[in-house]
Amino acid sequence: MTALNQAHCEACKADAPKVSDAELAVLIKEIPDWNIEVRDGVLQLEKLYAFKNFKQALAFTNSVGEIAEAEGHHPGLLTEWGKVTVTWWSHSVKGLHRNDFIMAARTDQVAKTAEGLK
To answer: Any residues with CB less than 8 A from the CB of 108 and at least 6 apart, and which?
Structure first.
């Protein structure tokens, strides 16, 4: 199996399967610093990244936006002074798809190269 941060998203339609409980247990181990949040009954992956200032947080946000646009899969991004909250979930399936775990892993990869990560 390809490492999540090297994988690419597949087209996801409303009838695509959400990750099963068994898949969730395996995939979450590959991105251990991410939290599972439930909002309005929808499972989402979320992580807070800390930076030294707003400029570095904004640069990270833009980098995540670039990988999201390239994959056609877009997160929730909350950029504040010194921090960025990234939330992944698949709108079309109203929950978690393997794509979300791929993009969470790729977000971590972007963070490793980001300047100013605390």
So the answer is: 5, 31, 33, 47
